[in-house]
Amino acid sequence: MPATNDRMDGRAWSVLFVLAGAIFLEGIDVAMLNVALPSIRADLGLSTGMLSGVVSAYVLGYGGFMLLGGRTADLLGRRRMFLLWLTIFLVFSGLGGLATDGWMLLVARFVTGVAAAFMTPAGLALVTSNFPEGPQRTKALGVYAGTAAGGFSLGLVAGGLLTSLGWRWVFFAPVVLAAVILVAAIPLLKDSGTPERPTGGFDLVGAFSITGAMLLLAYGVVRLEQPGDGVWLTVGTFTAGLTLLAAFVAIERRSANPLLRLGILRSGPLVRANLGALLFLASFAGFQFLVTLYLQELRGWSTVQTSLAMLVIGIDAVLAPTVTPRLVNRFGHVRVLFGGLVAAALAYMLFLPIGLDWTYAAMLPTMALLGLAFSLTYGPLTMAATHGVDEAEHGLAAGLLYTAIQFGTALGISAVTAVNVAMLGDATTPQAGLGAIRAALVVPVAATVVAVVITALGVRARTGARDVAPAALATSQTSN
Q1: Which of the 8 DSSP states describes residue 262?
Q2: pLDDT of residue 145
Q3: How many Å from the N-terminal Cα to the C-terminal Cα in the chain?
Q4: Residues 6 or more apart whose Cβ sits within 8 Å of residue 456
Q5: In terms of Cα–Cα distance, which of 294, 245, 237 is closest to 424?
Q6: Is-contact 273 264, C-beta < 8 A?
Q7: Which of 106, 233, 273, 413 is deepest in the core (most CB within 10 A)?
Q8: Are 136 and 8 in contact (CB under 8 A)?
Q9: Does 49 score more than 80 pLDDT?
Q10: Nearest CA to 283 among 445, 452, 436?
């Protein structure tokens, strides 16, 4: 471990910055591409379906391989998987920038998504294994989560600026950042122990079945954006995905060395954390999509203006590593998480009466509350997702968390798109567009309220007991 007491030394901070840089890279990569899509379509002449496919390809790669990626990190070594897939992420991001046709972008984004699916759970597992449980890990996860959320919000602005220079820079900029992280990571990162080697061989049947199930379910979620377009194909996709998922469960029950130990799903805190992550990210992804439509299509704002409007959400990059760890040490991660979700629900409710003449000052409270919500939510979610899980399975726990995050993001965008399209119909007036957006804004509100209720059950379950962070802090203070 890079440090053995509550204070992190220079090497510990260096390790943390490398790992946080990787999750920042993943967040900024996704956000910048979203902003650049109109420019990519104009330059390459892509159809709407192909353009949607560029986004969907990443979702399929990420969501389809995340569980496999998390477990592989535990079995084959977290450092090894992190470095290998960071390199692949770098290469295929660069290939995306060199694309001259839509199919090249599809391939590049799919493989980039697969790389992220292996890299991100390995990175989170390296954070939890390199920093001892207690205030030090709380601080490390606060920095890590703040950087992750900040990468997405700052990526919106960076994407707008880079796209003004040329959309290919949206792909080349991550190459430069990934190269810097890779050079620093090679000498700094170390695994905390020997990888868990399965005595009976790798669970290949389980790996193929869960990957197939996740790919089909992710594709089904993406197809929800097009209600009425091939409804039976969508139903068939979900049916096949759920069938493979059921087969995976049956396989894991009989496997001597399961890819996913089903007993881990009996952990109430882990299940609540994953449901909370899915709903929280679904609400934000849907909201961000609707705000982009509102500002650019109804109000005529430019890409850069839209990005700057949401920049205040990036305050989480400052608050998450500084304020959130102190709150967690004082109140516990479950209560802090609950407060963040309540802030998010309030933010979306304040935006429901949006009008065509709203000033930015009227939108600012929502943006500021969302920045606070990310500050209080993202870090505690990562803490809750690994709390009480054996360290040998932290890669698996991270894979479950990021699977929930990725599916939540895809589901949120699909849900608001379906409602928006259904409410808009054939109408083309600004008032009709505003009405459709208002109706779709109910989706983020509802998703966050459900997340609040689920997390409240966790708060109630911990009544009379302390979270691990306050207990660790008390022990530390006693020893000092």
Answers
A1: G
A2: 76
A3: 21
A4: 338
A5: 294
A6: no
A7: 273
A8: yes
A9: no
A10: 445
Query: In degrees, to the nearest 5, what angle opens at C-alpha 261 toward C-alphas 110 and 460?
Result: 100
DSSP category for residue 297: I
Confirm if 131 and 3 have CB atoms less than 8 A apart: yes
- Which residue is listed with tokens 């699909």? 414
Spatial CA neighbour of 323 closest among 63, 122, 143? 143
- Retrieve residue 438's tokens: 């208002």
**How buried is residue 49: exposed, middle or buried, by Cβ count under 10 Å (0-12/13-18/19+)?**
exposed
- SS3 state of residue 300: coil
| pLDDT confidence of residue 1 | 45
What is the rounded distance in angstroms from the CA atom of residue 199 to the CA atom of residue 399? 22
User: Do 243 and 250 meet the contact criterion of CB atoms below 8 Å apart?
Assistant: no
Overall average pLDDT of the 327-335 stretch: 89
CA–CA dist 98, 472 (Å, integer)? 50
Q: In this structure, are residues 276 and 381 in contact, taking their beta carbons and an 8 Å threshold?
A: yes
Calpha distance 41→293 (Å, rounded): 17
- Report if pTM > 0.85: no
For residue 275, name the pLDDT band (cuts at 50, 70, 90).
Answer: very high
Average pLDDT, the chain: 83
How many CA atoms does the CB half-sphere of 295 hold within 13 Å?
Answer: 20
Structure tokens at 285: 């992804």
Geometric angle at alpha carbon 239, from 237 and 240, rounded to 5°: 65
153: closest CA among 31, 278, 290, 29? 31
Q: Record the tokens describing residue 155, joined without a space.
A: 């990526």
- Separation in Å, CA 276 to CA 32, 174, 214, 284: 25, 29, 19, 12
Q: Which residues have CB under 8 Å from 305's CB, separation 6+?
A: 295
Identify the residue with better confidence: 247 or 470.
247
Q: What whole-number distance in Å separates Cα of residue 81 and Cα of residue 129?
A: 15
Structural contact between residues 69 and 80, judged by C-beta atoms closer than 8 angstroms = no
* Statement: residue 114 has pLDDT above 70: yes
d(CA 413, CA 410): 5
Q: Where is mean pLDDT largest: 181-185, 193-197, 213-217?
A: 181-185
Which phi and psi (to 5°) does residue 62 adopt? -70, -55
**What sign for the dihedral angle of Cα 171, 172, 176, 182?**
positive
* Tokens matching residue 213: 């199930």
Task: Give the DSSP per-residue string, 181-202.
Answer: HHHHHHHH---SS-----TT--
